[in-house]
Amino acid sequence: MFTFHNTYDGANCLDFSDDNVLVAAGFEQSYIRVWTLDGKNIEAAYPEMDDQPPANSRRLIGHSGPVYAVAFQPSATRAENVDPDDYVPTNARFLLSSSADKTIRLWSLDTWQCMVVYKGHDRPVWDLCWGPFGHYFVSGGSDRTARLWVTDHIRQQRIFVGHEQDVDRVCFHPNSAYIFTASCDHTVRMWAVTTGNAVRMFTGHTGNITAMECSRDGKILASADDQGSIFLWDLAPGRLLKRMRGHGKGGIWSLSWSVESTVLVSGGADGTVRIWDVTGPQDANQARVAGEGSGAAKIDPSNAPAGTAAQSKKKKGKDVVVTPDQISAFPTKKTAVYKVKFTNMNLVVAGGAYLP
Length: 356
Prior knowledge:
Number of strands: 29
CATH class: Mainly Beta
Strand content: over 45%
Helix content: under 10%
Radius of gyration: 19 Å
Number of domains: 1
């Protein structure tokens, strides 16, 4: 698990590159920092153009407000037969970020400079997500809209309007034909990219939706809220498959699917990483009650990532219901989990800010 030092208590968001080389964090102080996961120095793609001393991190400065989301462009595992003369340190070539300054920025990880500033939202941009092939991306903001962008066009290609409150979370379907938006109006909507029309609306959450991810086989959507519940939606008929519980209140901030789409991993404010069995049916009668001490580290909810409504206080001593879908839980040391990610080898990486 990757953790920040205790001086990095202004972190709002995290993302890991697909090749497991880099991790990026966006901060309340308007900047982004990118580290190597192994602690080694970042090797310059163009040494003759690089005027920075060797270091294991780089800082990206350009936003004029808190950074609420960062996302590495999708990339494949580094090839083994690359000519040494053509070697580049990572396949993650670009990074997206969004901010309270109403803009989205595209950063080059070769030159460590901002390439494009995308303007369209007229209020803070809470979340963004790349399309599966790294050409399109979608954003959601406080202006109650989601917007579809192409990296080589300065203006949005589609605007998705329909939510009654902020669009807090966005993600793509793996076939690129649909996007999903989640709002603090407690609904999730599925939109057709080609027409911009809503084709599904999922209702059932009683809290604000704080994480969302579509399965890799494209059949199931997982959404999670600040009440500690994960909902699985069958996309074909548009119905609820089951509800899984185990996290304490305060928000589930990240979800990720295994390669086979049979296992889901989650992390959030209670300081735990939890693994879930997606395939088995839920039997509500077998749900067990666990005290706060059973793998649910007590976290100050005020440390919730900005852009979510997960900053609600927990009642002391309240029991947590754990459904039988939970395979295992991994508590951390007072570390709210900002990001979890299944690698293509079905290993899980998790990251958060450690506040002793």
